[in-house]
Amino acid sequence: MSGHDEGSRAPGPRGAAFARILDPESVPVVGTDAHLAPVPAQRLLPSALRERFAAPRDWQPELAGDARELLTHAPSPAAVLVPLVEHDHGLSVLLTRRTDHLRDHAGQISFPGGRQERADADAVAAALREAEEEVGLARTQVEVVGRLPVYTTITGYQVTPVVALIRPGFALAPDPFEVAEVFEVPLSFLMTPAHHRRHAFELAGVRRQFLSMPWLPPGGERHYFIWGATAAMLRNLYRFLAD
């Protein structure tokens, strides 16, 4: 599931306020959140994450969904896996880049995930199944540590982010139709609000905004523009770990 409106196969609301953002990088940046402290390094350890999810404190997600008031139908359940890969140098977030030929969200950055099917026991089962189907991540390599609050997308999905630790030594087999690339971003980078950019624009008299977390790997040539719902769920993870 990808950036602006996860699960775009579902029917969505109509009208100008629902117009898709075709070039999010062209939307003006109105600021960053450099005034907020990054999540301390000790809270980004696997043991700390297990403890945090096992005994969560009172907190509120910052972003519950983009334009939920525009929905014209009951939202459908969906789930994404937020895979945190355990490296010796620290955790990283495994993300995918969608293939360029797809009708919806071509080339966008996403978590593995999708619609929750009737055969799925719950959101966790859906996230694990989708991760296997999309990138070939075997569930035997996955340690689910908890869930984040549901995020409602503009296209009518209630997405449950399932946070998991991924043991080293896994092998991936991305679905070539859906996934162009699988890559990782250091969790510490994404949990630093100075890297969270705020974009704002006006559409049909309604002010809209979204977050982005652009990532350029050291020495890399490809620029990864993480934005929309994917960035929003990462921002909620930041609030969960920082509060």
Layout of helices and strands:
Elements: E1 29-32, H1 46-54, E2 76-87, E3 90-98, E4 109-110, E5 113-115, H2 123-135, E6 142-147, E7 151-152, E8 157-166, E9 179-186, H3 187-190, E10 197-203, E11 206-212, H4 228-242
Parallel strand pairs: 2-8
Antiparallel strand pairs: 1-10, 2-3, 2-5, 3-4, 3-9, 6-8, 7-8, 10-11
Query: How big is the Rg?
Result: 17 Å
Series of secondary-structure elements, N-terminal to C-terminal = EHEEEEHEEEEHEEH
Number of helices: 4
Mean pLDDT: 86
Question: Which architecture name does CATH use?
Answer: Alpha-Beta Complex
Helix content: 10-25%
Largest sheet: 8 strands, mixed
Distance between the termini: 27 Å
Strand segment count: 11
CATH superfamily: Nucleoside Triphosphate Pyrophosphohydrolase
In CATH, the topology is named Nucleoside Triphosphate Pyrophosphohydrolase
Structural class estimated from helices and strands: alpha+beta
**Domain count:** 1
